[in-house]
Design a protein that fits this description.
alpha+beta; 92 residues; 3 helices
Amino acid sequence: MSQARVTLTIGGRRISVPCRAGDQERLEAAAKALEPEARALGGRFSSIDDAAFFAALALELAAAPRQETAAAVADAVDQAAYRIAQLVRRLP
């Protein structure tokens, strides 16, 4: 049985990657979500080869999650505080 593949365009560069059957749409959505970062990176490093470009993109993204994770945690805390406040209002 052959492994599924999906061809993606990220930052104007095409890449074909193996994936599990049924994961193509999920990977296409992920590639679309990467597009802003990839375009910005492509503007800075337009002359590098594809392998170096995708490595640089991975490194940029690896450095960024800390900020996104902190924002997600802050949002979750805000939502929890709001729900607790609602529950407190119901107390006699």
